[in-house]
TrEMBL record:
InterPro entries: AB_hydrolase, AB_hydrolase_1, AB_hydrolase_fold. Residues 68-178 form the AB hydrolase-1 domain. This is Pimeloyl-ACP methyl ester carboxylesterase. Transmembrane segments: none annotated. Pfam families: Abhydrolase_1. The lineage of its organism: Bacteria, Bacillati, Bacillota, Bacilli, Bacillales.
Amino acid sequence: MSSIYRSEEGKSSILEEYEIYLNELGEEFTREYVETRFGKTHVLLTGPLDGKPLFILQGGNCVNPMTLSWFSSLFKEYRIIAPDTIGHPGYSEEASISTRFDSLALWVSDLLDHYDIEKSAFIGPSFGGGIILRLATYIPERISCAVLVAPAGLAVNSKIKTAQDITLPLVKYRMTSSPSSLQKITDNMSCNCMKEMDKNIIGKLFKYVSIDQDLPKLTEREELVNYTSPTLLLVGEKDVFFPADKCIERAQKIITNVEAIKYDTGHFPSQDVLVQMNEEIGRFLQNNY
């Protein structure tokens, strides 16, 4: 099996950061491995055992605790189930699975079956949002409601814009480890507000991980004809990857029951915007779950 890591030393460094970040969350997590048809999946669990299940799906090419930190206000009320995405940094199987067809949906379905959950609420930022859209395409009956945060699978920025803001500085950073190149990338991803802890991890991921650029496919209208679950779309006006207005326009065309909110932020939300997002998510879940 080919590894997503460029070296064993790099892998150890990333997993060390994973543990540091998990400890910083200050919550009691249990962790376990679940066998799926695509391989072993490492899952973090927290929140009350009798709480309603809430799957939080990891953003792409980051570490699971970083994604979880965005939604920590939900930990006290819901039973959080947060798998490390297969083929992404973390403790799950390292071999990637197809992002285009039903593989991601079947992977989530295996996890739902393991926990004996017929249907659940889902939150997915970025790549995680794209996974939810794959689930909505192939197994929509398993989604009670969904929150898509700057999701893949709706619209993408121009290749020229992405190359200028991300790809070229990334190539330079990998060649030179230039702090200014990393700063440019993280500033463009977050509108100059990325936490130092996140910036440090992003730098290591860029250096030590073969970044998976195969995003979940753009969702077609006919794929979601059977998906009617309440859906909340939260997007950033300055998102360097998934432009807000295009995502909203696309979502309103293909998702029957969607509410969209746009924030003055980038792909990585500012702390102030995260507070606002969590308030909206809490309201949405209370009303729809």
